[in-house]
């Protein structure tokens, strides 16, 4: 903290120097012990003040003029930064100081970096010792007057004889009249000869004046206040603040009050150490113009009322009796505002405070003016408040509307963002569900599809593709008989097929009534009951129970009728006569005779490389046991000799399922290598390898007649195979986890399967409920068997036409492949054709050399009409209107012609003709065309990627723009006619607005190597395209332009695709017609 420089009083000349008590400044000792510093052209006479950072000296220059010199020493600072900051403040204040009469003039600034100090020379304050002598003479004159009876002597509280004698003044005394100073007349600097002695010099400060006189008269206080406010205004206008205004820092020079101790002057809001004197700085601290005004107000409070600054804003006792009472009240009102605790309530500037002081000087009442201002302000505020209230109401209404708009916009954006996220998730899940179905992971596919079943109030994003995939997930089973809590390990039918027994990983055994589909018995066995078997021609069931094997009636599992001791039974089977069981443990085979209650152990298998869960099968004659080993081999074990008979090699990994055919001639095996193999037992050789499972084949079972084999795998499917041919008959889907057990019913036609998720399902293996397969194009029943070389599908998908090489054109019911009509006589070879949406007409465009003629085949009349459409020019494109009553042709003569098919005679009448624009590259060559649903617009696409749209009723072109950089292969309008899609030969599709011809969304590009056909779904939400060499059909979501589904099956490029109705999509290629069925939305009840 930069302590203020306190003046150093001179020694009392009446007392010896030793008797004078040291002041605080002198007690600290000299700051420069080597002696006074060297100040050019100045003689330092005496140190008259000292502070924390420097000293003030009385000096005399070469002209004999007395000056004050302040010296600031580097050693008094901890760092260079504050020392240099002090010097910067003086350097900035020096030119400012001489421009105002109430600032102390800085006459010269210098520094000595070698000796570590800087200094500045100032004008000297008046000599207070001379003023003291004048005051004493005035007091003596008052005493003489009193003694002569002219007037009583008066003394200020701080200037009483007792006070001067060092006695304490009373704590509170009535306020006495102020003691006036002698007239303050300007004086010239006092020469040395005018001073009593340099040693007697005392700086004349406001503090000294208050010490001598107490409170000052109102007029003097007002003059001091006016002068100092202008000094602060001048200082603040130059971006400087004083920071330590107090009585000891206000000096009188030639009788004028000036701001001194300018070592504390700093730049406004500079980051500096805290300085100032307690009681004079505001709560927020120093360093601002407002803080300077606060400090000045406190100083003027002390001067005008004689009160300590800590008592602010108290008025002293006896204040009401003062003659200057009214003036001091006005003056005090200014001080109260200057010293407000809240900076915002103080004067904004020194100029404002000065203006109020001038009003007081002119006799105006500040308090009354403020009252009037407050009243006027109150009325103004009331009026403004009323106006503002009205405005606020209007603004609030406006803001509320705007806020509502913004909230609606934000809500719309948020909903749009959420909707976009949901649509993206939907597209992703549809592709994942399709992949899951390819992998036979029905559970995963159902999980993905179920996510998008909308809840109440949610948007339904589902389209045809969802229903199609949902239909493929539908299980083909008759029913789900029941469920275990854990993995089903084994199942078996009773010999009459009425009962089914099952056991799970947790050793829970259940018995079911197949006909009634009811559980009839259940028991929790001791570990590990992972095998069971029904005895032939009875309802007796053999099942392990801890260290024993029990024989129970199937509906009385808690009351076994017999048992034998055996640990760890993994497999068990009865002999054909039901008298014996063969059970496999690790590492023994046990043959038990129930009639004799005898068991024979065959320990020979202990030396085999067995798996942890022993797979084995027992031949019907009980003479051979097949055992699956690790790494794939199968051992045929001779029961009679307890030795290996043969080894079957072929599987690459462990065998999990084994079963003998009913005649014992064939052994089936399923392995972790995903293959199923049939072995010829007699020759010990592999007979057939069956491939189809995508992962481990864990269970196999022969049908009672031995002609069909069922295999179950971890891929969640059950496959049926022809034992004779090795062909796969069916794939049964419906399980949601790996299938672990299969068994045919003895009565045939029913297959039971157990799943790792605990479900047991029944399947009808006699009926074929598999989805319909694609059907080949029909061939005509003619002797020459002429092949179809041209074909097409109507827009509604219900009619198919074929043109055979013998010139016969046939119309077919595409759903049932029944011939509806045949028309002979079409002998020319044509390059393309089109069928009307209602299936009545087929128009054929002929290749070059036919003089621009087209043939129109009418199935209703059974006739062929030929007419010249474009003179001698080739016909390039054909299109029917949606109502099948009009036809458009595009020819090499650069013209598009529209024909009315409802006329008389040959049924064709030209309705309109348009000239196609000729591009700069070459002559026009139209490739494709399409009518809008309303029939008023015709769009054509050419080989250069351009699209033209013609208004038929107005007979003018309404649009002409480039849609693709390659040939436009197909055009299709949406069902409502507001949009149309275009496809390039590069497989890219784009969507356009009809009215503005602006592209909607982004380009759609799948894996299509080309596009042969495009159509919209009936609801207009999906775009379907087919083509390319891979025969794929793709479906896109027109809300997000994301690919949703790929339909695979065609081996050749798809040329036409159409929706038969909301549920059926029909596609055609050169080898087959496909019907892609989706369940009706009303029939789906997840």
Provide keyphrases for this structure:
4-stranded antiparallel β-sheet, 19% helix, Methylamine Dehydrogenase, Chain H, 6-stranded antiparallel β-sheet, 1086 residues, disordered N terminus, single chain, alpha+beta, elongated
Q: What overall form do the CA principal axes indicate? A: elongated
Our estimate of the beta-strand percent is: 25-35%
CATH topology of one domain: Methylamine Dehydrogenase, Chain H
- Main β-sheet, spatial strand arrangement: 1-2-3-4-6-5
CATH architecture of one domain, by name, is 7 Propeller
Number of strands: 66
* Biggest sheet character: 6 strands, antiparallel
Secondary structural class: alpha+beta
Task: Give structural notes.
- The chain is α+β, with helices and mostly antiparallel strands.
- Among the domains are: 375-453 and 461-473; 479-764, Methylamine Dehydrogenase, Chain H (7 Propeller), CATH 2.130.10.10.
- 19% of the residues lie in helices and 34% in strands.
- The protein contains 12 helices and 66 strands.
- The strands form 17 sheets. A 6-stranded antiparallel beta sheet has the order 1-2-3-4-6-5, covered by helices on one side.
- It is elongated, with a radius of gyration of 58 Å.
- The chain starts with 5 loop residues before the first strand and ends in a 9-residue tail after the last strand.
- Residues 1-6, 9-28, 150-173, 179-194 and 780-785 have low confidence and may be disordered.
